[in-house]
Amino acid sequence: ACSELSQTSCDECLRNVSCLWCYTNKTCVDYPVRSVLPPSSLCSLPKARWGVCWLNFEDLIIAIAVVAGLLLVSTAACCCYCCYCRR
User: Fold this and answer.
1) What angle do CA 14, 17, 22 make, to 5 degrees?
2) Mind giving me the DSSP string for 54-65?
3) Residues β-bridged to residue 8
4) Which domain holds residue 48?
5) How many domains does the chain have?
6) Which GO cellular component terms, listed alphabetically, does the Swiss-Prot or TrEMBL entry include (predicted)?
7) Coil, helix or strand for 74?
């Protein structure tokens, strides 16, 4: 289904959440769900778009990792405060 949207636009392709847009050759491909990251043979991470066109896959992974790290640190800080500082 995604391959039918090739040679259209990134916005058209990403309306379907199971599609991945590659800027290298302007193709819309099915997201490889068996692997967490799309293989470089399909599209390099800086040129791959998934979800939104203005954020490449590499930056998306970094942003998710930063948010997850902040949540982990803030949870640990709250636990330490509740367990040790309130005594």
Assistant:
1) 45
2) TSBHHHHHHHHH
3) none
4) 2-85
5) 1
6) cytoplasm; nucleus
7) helix
